[in-house]
Design goal:
With 194 residues, this protein is of the alpha/beta class. It has seven helices and six strands. It has one domain: Ribonuclease H-like superfamily/Ribonuclease H (Nucleotidyltransferase, domain 5, 2-Layer Sandwich). The longest helix has 18 residues.
Length: 194
């Protein structure tokens, strides 16, 4: 199965009022993380990033100033995701996929439906009690951050989640189809029409 583990950073918590500032992803094939198949981009915003968000994510106004606009960034991400992938995010149902869908709608980008898995559901299945935050998952599975990157940078978080996903897949007693609980609409890029 072709999985694309992804993470976004944003200017706030509302997909209707806030904007995506960063998208990162790594591919996973047959349960193994493909460390050489990654995607990362900052995304230009229309409004300044609040200082408290920069403090958490490390994404500054300077980093997004010359970044691609949202429609270009989303098309690039859609190309990376490809035709036959399933997207995977932590708390994706409530956060990441809602931001993607709203950003595509805002920019009138016609899309294709891609199945999604929320790793919160996997965590709750494997460990019914306790916390299910990404930090709790990282701690439970003894995952370390990549060198030179910090937590809440999408490039770091996507690798942390991919490593968690690899370990969780080894413990699951059922197939992943049971966890494909929602879809997101990503743009259809010109290269996909041929």
């Amino acid at each position: 199965m072709n999985l694309v583990i992804f993470d976004i950073e944003t200017t706030g918590f509302s997909p209707y009022y806030h904007e995506i500032t960063q998208i990162a992803a790594v591919r996973m094939r047959d349960g193994k993380v493909m460390r050489d198949e990654t995607f990362s981009t900052f995304v230009k915003t229309t409004k300044p990033i609040p200082w408290h968000i920069t403090k958490i994510t490390g994404v500054t106004n300077a980093l997004v100033r010359s970044a691609p606009p949202p429609d270009v960034a989303l098309q690039a991400f859609a190309r990376f995701a490809g035709h036959d992938s399933t997207l995977v995010a932590h708390n994706g149902k409530k956060f990441d996929t809602r931001f993607l869908s709203e950003a595509c709608a805002r920019h009138n980008m016609h899309g294709r439906e891609i199945p999604c898995i929320d790793t919160l559901d996997l965590s709750r299945t494997l460990w019914p009690g306790g916390s299910h935050t990404l930090d709790a998952l990282i701690s439970r599975l003894k995952i370390s951050a990549p060198t030179g990157l910090h937590r809440h940078d999408a490039r770091c978080d996507v690798h942390l989640l991919a490593d968690c996903m690899e370990k969780m897949l080894g413990q699951l007693k059922c197939g992943l189809a049971d966890f494909m609980t929602h879809h997101v609409s990503l743009p259809t890029t010109p290269a996909m029409l041929h």
